[in-house]
Every structure is written in structure tokens, then in C-alpha cells.
Amino acid sequence: MAESTETVGQGLLLEPLHRVWPAQALQLAPLRREMLRWLEPLALSEDAEDDLVLAVNEAVSNCIEHAYRPATVGDTVDIRCWTEPHAVFVEIVDHGRWRTPTGEPTRRGRGIVMMQRLMASVEIHRDVGGTRVLLCHALPSAPRSRVAGAP
User: Fold this and answer.
1) Which end of the chain is more exposed for a tag (fewer CB within 10 A), N or C?
2) Is 115 within the bounds of a domain?
3) Structural domain includes residue 103
4) Which pLDDT score, from 0 to 100, does residue 9 have?
5) CB neighbours of residue 129 within 10 Å
6) Rounded to two decimals, what is the model's pTM?
7) Residue 140: its pLDDT value, please?
8) What residue spans of the chain are helical by DSSP H?
9) What is the extent of the structural domain holding 48?
10) How many angstroms from the chain centroid is the CA of residue 7?
């Protein structure tokens, strides 16, 4: 369990978390539990915790489904979590290859929009090394506009 490193205003600065997870759908439930354990000292509302965990789950699901084709046993997703006085940050990184969407209509493809609605900000960077998603969730004491584009 993470321990607080310092108290700043109404927010806690938690010990950063870094985990490397196998890029497998079976790892999503343990990942959600790990996120909830790490977030616990922040005493966020249940809705805020759910929003954060859902956005992380969606980003990791995208890594599992889209980054590694064909999938191999060694495929991984790196998760880094940290707090700053005004926000919680989660970075999700895969080491796969971005594939341009086909443009064909599907009933899918709403994950990024969902993450953007749940978080104060979502930044996505793709390059030859994989895809990096940075999620930022404002802490209750911080206005949303203060964390836009953070850090």
C-alpha cells in the first residue's frame, strides 16, 4: 500500500507507483484493484475513484487490444501513478505499434472520448516506441481549469 510522503493543502502526495503488467485482458481486474488500493489514502469520492479507475482500465484495454497484434507472451503495459498538490496523474505506456484505424464504421471506438469526459485532461503521444497516455484527474481542492494541460 502506498504511504503518503507529504500533506499539501487538502491533497496528499502519495508515494509514486510504477508497475509493469502483462498486456492481457485477465490482468484488468487485478489492475483495477491495485489502482483502488493506491488511491485509497486520497479519500476521493466513490464517483471520482470510479472515474479514474475506468479511464485507466480503458487506456490499458486499448493497449491490450490495439498495440500488440499479433499478441505475444512478453507484451507489457507500464503504469505510473503519482500525485501533485492539485491532481492525480496516471501514465499508461505500451511498447507496441500504432495501427491507423480503417475508417470503417464500427460500434466501438468511444474509449478516448470517454476518458476525455472522465478526466481533467488526456494526452496521447504515439511514436515508433509505442503509445503513451497521460491521464490527469483534478483533486477536490483544485479547480479543473488549473490542471488542464498539466504537468
Assistant:
1) N
2) yes
3) no
4) 33
5) 12
6) 0.82
7) 82
8) 28-39, 46-62, 111-118, 144-147
9) 4-98+110-147
10) 23
